[in-house]
Design a protein that fits this description.
The complex is a heterodimer of chains A (324) and B (290).
Chain A (H helix, E strand, L loop, with lengths): L5 E12 L2 E13 L4 E5 L6 H7 L9 E8 L2 E2 L5 H10 L1 E4 L13 H11 L4 H14 L5 H5 L8 H13 L5 E5 L7 H18 L2 E6 L2 H7 L2 E6 L2 E7 H6 L4 H9 L48 E2 L5 E2 L11
Parallel strand pairs in A: 3-8, 3-9, 6-7, 7-8
Antiparallel strand pairs in A: 1-2, 1-4, 4-5, 9-10, 10-12, 11-12
Chain B lengths: L6 H4 L3 H4 L8 H18 L1 H4 L31 H37 L1 H15 L3 H12 L4 H27 L2 H8 L4 H37 L11 H13 L4 H32 L1
The chains are: A alpha/beta (324), B mainly alpha (290).
């Protein structure tokens, strides 16, 4: 079997808080193959950001972890400082939520793009040429002029393109995007998404796309993982997930979205509020909000199991096909 | 509800506007000009001074202000104005070295403490507290007690004593700066901590440090003058403001004010000017960050 580019294997993360360790992630496993676009969907507090940051070794310093996060076969969690640096410069890049915050406002965009390459030993002229190429690739007009401008002279969407260009500068084999369009307005979102998917396809980059927008994820990704309260509750190929969700939570997320079709049902919100792993009960974390919950749901912890087809779901009643 | 605002009325008068340096008021401009004049005087003292600062003229002893001696002469008949002009040299050079050394050391200690955190931070911070709790002048005097009078030992002692002022400030603002997301996004690009610190963190905190260093300059000037006044620093007959006040004491008892008063005024003006400039820069930085 071909080795996956990214393999998170049974990752558990706890943060020490006072005497008790507060759990953040519980047995999260996911994988991204080379050139694959994988979505990771969940509400705020579900642990999706922690999961994706673990890929770059960006966990909080005192976090205690179990399991492995392997990038090209090497466990990120046990890498030395130099190993991490090597990983970050050559293999994995990350795009953050807010482009405005992730660029030093005092320096020119050209510095932002070339400094990393300069540090890696690329001569100044070559780095500038490459920066121009990258800006051109992300659809910025007049790349040469853009290099001389400061971040505040760009709109949010344009700046996110610059950030994407910087992330691609090292020719990474894996790109981690943590809600790259959440801070942008809707029209810009579409453009940035288009650029990301085009570049991802052109360059054959593996990508882990973190978002809270299930529809967006199922529209652009090959496979989608759905997280709830620090656990993966369902994973399927994107199209299947959208048509035949297995977990009531996924179904609930899909039902919350308003539809434009004339005969469509009105959006139905999921009752209750999301819980974090720390406050989740011993059984299924979603049981309290689930319309299909039975008594055993609040006692027995469901495990991810395969049901007909490819997907996995962690629901005691998934095989009953009771959804919606 | 709308409020009509006469925009042109909000514009400042151009005459005053021309006086603004760094977007600060006329007071700031005056302070900058005064300091510039001070530096010029220190550099060109030999050209400006009407007399040799150490030349004795016993006939002019304790002479009052006249066309021959604009600020009079001291007990040994030396021209007070010439001595003031030459005195600007040691008056500025000493604090300059103190501020340069303490700023460098403070930045190093502060950035390392903020960046590394944990035990390194605890160790460096406690060391700074220790130095901070010791009066700088006392340390300087102890140094002099070991090495004998002169400027080298006090300057080094004062540099160490002033390091915590810079170090604590740098540590706290570097911590804030380090918490900004852009630092993390650069880390994720695989840049080394050293690169990020030198090329991004330092330039971003530099203006705040500059403000603190300008204020420190004034204080260091006063402390070193005090040392010279006490006889531990610049040694007679070299012209120095602190030493001049000391020598002027006798003249004061005999009714001549100028030999002691003139250097006192110089010290005061310089210290106030440095404080105004420092606070002006700090103000400017605060406005920028808002």
């Amino acid at each position: 079997m071909q080795q996956n580019l990214l393999e998170i294997d049974d990752l558990t993360v706890r943060l020490p808080e006072g005497r008790a360790a507060r759990p953040i992630l519980d047995g999260v496993s996911l994988s991204v193959a080379a050139g694959e676009m994988v979505g990771l969907v969940g509400e705020s507090g579900s642990g999706k950001s922690v999961a994706c940051r673990s890929v770059l070794g960006l966990l909080p310093e005192r976090a205690r972890t179990d399991g492995e996060v392997r990038v090209a076969g090497r466990d990120v969690l046990t890498l030395s400082r130099d190993g991490l640096k090597e990983l970050r410069t050559r293999q994995v890049s990350m795009i953050f939520q807010d482009p405005r915050a992730s660029v030093n406002p005092m320096r020119r965009v050209g510095d932002f793009l070339t400094e990393g390459m300069r540090a890696a030993g690329v001569p100044a002229a070559a780095a500038t040429d490459r920066a121009e190429e990258l800006l051109d690739a992300v659809g910025i007009r007049d790349p040469r002029g853009a290099l001389r401008r400061h971040p505040h002279q760009f709109s949010g969407g344009m700046l996110q393109r610059v950030v994407i260009a910087a992330a691609l500068a090292s020719r990474p084999s894996l790109l981690v995007a943590d809600e790259p369009t959440t801070a942008l307005d809707v029209t810009t979102q579409a453009e940035v998404i288009a650029i990301l998917t085009r570049l991802q396809a052109e360059r054959g980059t593996g990508m882990l796309f973190v978002t809270h927008d299930l529809e967006l994820a199922s529209a652009i990704c090959d496979r989608v993982y759905v997280m709830y309260a620090g656990r993966i509750v369902e994973t399927q190929a994107a199209t299947d997930l959208f048509d035949r969700p297995r977990h009531p939570y996924t179904a609930g997320l899909l039902a919350c979205t308003p539809r434009v079709e004339p005969d469509a049902a009105p959006p139905r919100p999921i009752p209750g509020r999301p819980v974090s792993l720390a406050e989740s009960p011993s059984g299924c974390a979603f049981a309290a909000r689930c319309a299909h919950a039975q008594e055993r749901c609040s006692v027995e912890k469901p495990v991810l199991r395969q049901y007909d087809g490819q997907g996995l779901a962690a629901c005691l009643r998934a095989d009953e096909g009771i959804l919606l | 509800m709308t409020t009509a605002v006469d925009v042109t009325a909000l514009r400042r008068r151009p005459g005053l506007r021309r006086l603004r340096v760094f977007g600060q008021g006329p007071l700031f401009t005056a302070a900058v000009l005064l300091l510039a004049a001070l530096v010029a005087v220190a550099l060109f003292a030999p050209l400006l001074a009407p007399y040799d600062p150490d030349a004795l003229d016993l006939q002019a002893t304790l002479a009052g202000s006249s066309t021959d001696h604009l600020l009079g002469a001291d007990q040994s008949g030396r021209d007070v104005l010439s001595r003031l002009l030459y005195g600007a040299r040691s008056g500025l050079l000493g604090p300059l070295v103190v501020v340069a050394l303490s700023t460098l050391l403070g930045i190093l200690v502060g950035v390392v403490a903020a960046w590394r955190g944990g035990r390194v931070d605890a160790l460096l911070s406690r060391s700074m507290d220790l130095v901070f709790s010791f009066p700088g002048l006392l340390v300087a005097i102890m140094f002099v007690a070991v090495t004998g009078p002169g400027m080298t030992a006090p300057v080094i002692a004062m540099a160490v004593a002033y390091t915590p002022y810079v170090g604590r400030l740098v540590r706290s603002i570097a911590q804030q700066e380090k918490a900004r997301p852009y630092i993390e996004s650069y880390l994720v690009q695989g840049w080394s901590g050293w690169t990020i610190c030198v090329r991004h963190l330092l330039p971003n905190i530099a203006p705040t440090v500059l403000a603190q260093s300008a204020i420190n300059f004034g204080y260091a000037l006063m402390d070193l003058a005090a040392l010279s006044f006490l006889g531990f620093g610049v040694q007679p007959p070299t012209a120095d403001w602190g030493a001049m006040i000391n020598e002027g004491e006798g003249a004061l008892l005999q009714g001549a004010m100028l030999p002691a008063l003139a250097p006192s005024v110089c010290i005061m003006l310089a210290v106030v000017a440095f404080s105004i400039v420092g606070e002006g820069i700090a103000d400017r930085v605060a406005k920028r960050d808002r």
